[in-house]
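USER:
Before I trust my own judgement here, I would like a peer's view. Write it directly below this note and I will take it from there.

ASSISTANT:
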Amino acid sequence: MSYMRRVSVVSIICCTMRQSFMGNVFINYETQEWKNKELIIILNKDDMDIEIWKQYAKQYWNVSVYQLPEITTLGECLNYGIEKAKYAFIAKFDDDDYYGPNYLGQGMQAFKKKDISIVVKRSVYMYFEKNKLLTVHVPGEENLFITGGVKGATLLFRKKIYEKVMFPYLNRGEDTFFIKACLRYNFKIYSTTKANYVCVRRAEPGHHTWNVEDEVLMKNCTVVCKTDDYRACGVDHEQRTSKKIAYLTFDDGPNQATSQILDILATYKAVGTFFMLEPNVQIFPKIAQRMVNEGHAIGLHGVSHKVNIFYASKESVMREITTCRRTLKSITRMNTFLVRAPYGSNLYMKPTYLKAVNYAGYRLWDWNVDSLDWKFRDRRLLKQIIKDVLRLEKKAINPVILMHDYPETAKYLPKIISFLEKRGYLLEKIDYSLKPVLLNRLSMKHKLRLRIR
C-alpha cells in the first residue's frame, strides 16, 4: 500500500433533495477502490425521513446522515458537511452523476505534485440521456493547472482551505464563487483527465440546478459514441477500446481447487474475477480473503444455485444476491456489486428481475467464451477456449471467459494463460466501470447448452 493510500483519508460530502437518487449516492461511495474514506450525506428536503436513511446507511461502512431544513442553501449544506468531516481531504459528490471506481484514487494521486490544494476536472465525459449521446465537454483541458471553468461535482480539496474559504450561501454557482475565492488566496488548482467520471444530463425538464439547455452545452462537446451504458465509458474511452484484454472468470467457488487457481495466477502475475456462492464463502473464508489480498475481483453468484429457488420470484433473486453480498462483505470488507446469475442471464432472468437487479445498482455479467469445463473435464476445454477466442479476435471483441473452480480447470489454466499472452492479450479483472457482456436472450445455442447441465 502506497504512502498516500495509507495516510490520506477522504471525506465525501453529498447534499441531496432527491430521494430517488439516494441509491446512486451509496453505490458511488461503495464502489470507490480508495478504501480510506467516509461518506457524509446532507438531506436538504423536509419530507425526506432521516431515520429511514440512517437505518439504510448502517449497511455501509463509515457513513453519516444529517438533515437541514430545505430553506438552507446548498452552500450552507456543504459548509455544514465540511465541519462534520473527520479527515484531511474533502470530495464533493453530486447525487445524480457517475463516479468510477478509481475516481478518488486518480484525484488523490494528483496531490503528490507539490503545492496542489484543489484537484478538479475541466474536461469531463458528459452524457445526454435524452439523445443517449456520450460526449466530452470542453475537450483538451487535462493534466494542467487552471484558473476556472471547473465542474463543481468534481471538487477534491484539502480541508485546511476551509480555514480561509467557505462556500457562499447560494443554491447555484456556489462552486464558481468558491474557486474564485481560492484563487485570490493563491491556492493552486489542478485538472486531471476526464477519466473515471461522467456528468449525466437527465432527460427530465427542470432536473438540474445548472440551468443550461442541452443544445448550449453541446456546442462545447465532441461526441464519443451513442450508448445506453454511460458507466462503461467512465474510464478513458480511447485507452480501453484500443487494448486487447482478456477476462478470466471463475464461478461456484471458493473451494480447494480455488487455491490451486490462485497459485497459478500468482505465478503468472495474472488477475481474475471470481463469482462466488455464499455457502462456499462461509466454508472457505480464508480463500475468499486471499482473492482480495492478491488483487482479484470478487463477485456474487447467489446462495442456492438452484433454478427453482434462485429464480422463484423477483424477491428471491434479490434475496440471494443481497445475502451473498453481505456475507462476502462481512468476511472480506469488500462490498462488491458485480453479479453473475446462475446459468447466465438469458435463460431464467425475467425482465422484471433484471430491472430490479439494475435498479439496486448491481452489474450483471455473463460471458462470450464458454470453456465448457462443466461438461468437458479434459483437454477439450482448452480447445474450446482457443476456438472461441480466435473467433472473437477476428471481430476485435475482447473475450470474457467462463470457467469454474474445478481441479481440471486449474490443470489447464497455465496453457490457457500462455495462449492468451502469446496472442497479445492483457489479463485484467472486471470492474464496475466496464460495460457488462450479456448473452443474447434469443440465443438457443446457449440455452441448449445450459439445459444439458
Observations:
- Residues 3-239 form a domain with the Spore Coat Polysaccharide Biosynthesis Protein SpsA; Chain A fold (CATH 3.90.550.10).
- Residues 1-6 have pLDDT under 50 and may be disordered.
